[in-house]
Structure formats: C-alpha cells, structure tokens
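Reference record
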Amino acid sequence: MLIVASAGAVAAVRPITDLPLQADGPNRWRLPAGEYRGSFRIDQPLKLTCAPGAIFQAEGQGNGLLISAPDVSVQGCTFLDWGDDLTAMNAAVFIQPQARGAQVLGNRLQGQGFGIWVDGTQDVSVIGNRIQGDTSVRSQDRGNGIHLYAVHGARVIDNHVRDTRDGIYIDTSNGNLLQGNTLEDLRYGIHYMFANDNQVLGNTTRRTRTGYALMQSRKLTVIGNRSEQDQNYGILMNYITYSTLQDNVVTDVRDGSTGDTMIAGGEGKALFIYNSLFNRIENNRFARSAVGIHLTAGSEDNRIAGNAFIDNQRQVKYVASRLQEWSADGRGNYWSDYLGWDRNGDGLGDVAYEPNDNVDRLLWLYPQVRLLMNSPGIELLRWVQRAFPVMKSPGVMDSHPLMQAPTQKEPA
C-alpha cells in the first residue's frame, strides 16, 4: 500500500496536487489506492475520483479535505480519523463559501467530528455518501453527519448517516432539498433551525431520539418521510408556520426518558406541535405510539384532515382554549378507536369523534390526579360530563371522521 506520510502531528494543510494524481480526462484526476495521511485542500476547479482503496487518513487533526474553489467534485473516497474539535468545526470534508457548485458523491466517512460541513455557499450536491460516527464518544460530543450553515440551493440526496450527533443539521439555510436519506441511531435525524422554503422528501429515520426536529422555520414541505422506532418524538414542530406535512408515516415512537429532549415531556409522541400555526397536516399516518398527536402552546389554526391515527395508546392530547375542528371540506381523519357508524355508506362517520373530555384535561393539568383514576369520584365526573354536555371544556372535534384509513402515497 502506498503511504504518503504527514509532516508532523499538526501538519499544515497541503494542496491535493501533492498527491500522485493520475490524469483521467480534461480537468479530471484519479487518486490511486493508498493511505494518504494529513489534511489536504482543493483550491482550483477539478473532478477528483478515488480508486477503490484510496483513503484520506487525517490522523486526528483538522479537516480531512478542505474545498475552497468552485466546481469541485470528489467521488468514491474514504475519509478516516479527522479532528474531533467541534468548536473548530473539524470535518472530513469542509466546503468553504467560495466552493459554489461543489459535489461530494459516493464517499465513505468514519470519524468523531463533523462528516460534511457546508459553509455559506450555494448549489452544493451531497449525494450517496455513507457517514458513521464513533459510538465510543457521547452522542452530544460527536459532530453532525451533514451540517449546512447559511447554504442555498443544496441537494442532499440518498445519504446514509448513523451514530453521529444529528444526521442532517440545517441552520439559517433556505431553498434546499433533502431527499431519500436514511438516518439511524442519532440524537435528531433531521434538525432544522431558522431555515425556510426547504423540501424534506422521502427520508427515513430509525432509532433516533427525535426523527424530524423542525424548529423556528416556515414554508417547509415535508412529504413522504418515515419515522420508525424513534424515541420521544417522531416529528416535532416548534415555531413552524405556513408549512405542509403530507403523506408521512410515523410508527412505534417510544418514551425514551433520556432527559435529552428539546421540550420537556417527551412521551413517545408521533407528532408534537408546539406554538405552530397555519400549517397543512394531511394524509399522514401516526401509529402504535404512546401519543398520536399532542398540540400545545397556542398551536391552533392548523388544517388537520385526511390523517390516520392507528392504535396509539392515546390518540390526542390537547389542552384547548377554544374548540378545534379537525376536518376540512367535509372530510376528517381516521381514528382506529372510533365507535360511530356510517348509515348512508358515504365513508364518513355519522357521529363526531371527540377524543378528550374534562377528565383528560384535568389529568394533563394536574398529573397527580392519576392516583385517583379508578376512584368513584373520577367515574362520577365522566358520567356527569356525558349526561350534561354543556359542562364540556373546549377541545378537539372531528365532525366527519373517516371510516377507512386513507391510502398512503409513495414519495415522488
């Protein structure tokens, strides 16, 4: 195996042209198999393809590869053991602001720091990479798999990220596409902060502490994603406005009880909506979780219709200040515990679905009352509420519940 030695423990970043590149066409270069030690940079437009067995070994210092020129492509390389200084933003591949149009394609990355950091540039493609963190390090001390900061027009597609801190983190970045990524065994699968006009399509999260943490953003299009066996929250919406959640599937969300949650009270919620308004939540499936949907902190004026809530321990948790109607254009949602009927065969229940009552509200406001759940006093309260509906508190009503769960659409 060819070995290019580093020039010391803290070697300077060297140009990629120091390596034994082989011409592979106009402005195209091929890096032969071998272990190339140290940190390298690409400061001119070029396309670099690694032969099988070509490995960048950064020896625990700095970045593996720094891209500082436009129109650079890096494909098929392996990056190992780059720096773990998160304050210095150490990454296997660090893409600088001047590297517009960079492409990072089909590489393998394994280390403790950030995987791919994209910093303040445009039109970057991060496609088909496999990124793995180091499980010997606490998750909060690992870097994110893919980190976008102040980025516009990025395409992050078909990557597989596991055992990093967050799978894909997006901060102050607008107009980007995340599609077809698989994100496993993480803190948060996809994490949005102050990022608008983004598309999140056909991604899958598994065994994360939150599948999709959508925070402080607007005009997100979240369609055709899956959350499987995540903890605390499948999808978390925190200060999200004017966004669309459609054709997503969230199943088997568990109460992780890790104490590492964005908002206190992670109870295995398929969908948690916190202070989020004017969103369309349609044709999603929320199943086999502790809570199907929880709304709080003024999360009203959302359109919630055509969804299926199947076999959740509690379908809805909502302490309301006014009645919330969860149907639109004469069409509501499917509830697996609905006990009504459909006499005219139009596919809609003839009796409204009301998931919560005054006793539920009392239990949410004063959890210690749970000690009296089966007491005669609690049973009397439920009887009085049924006998005298005028005493009911405002809550959720689905006036047109669906008798059959809608068919899920496959992502485009």
Notes: Residues 212-356+395-411 form one domain. The mean pLDDT is 88.
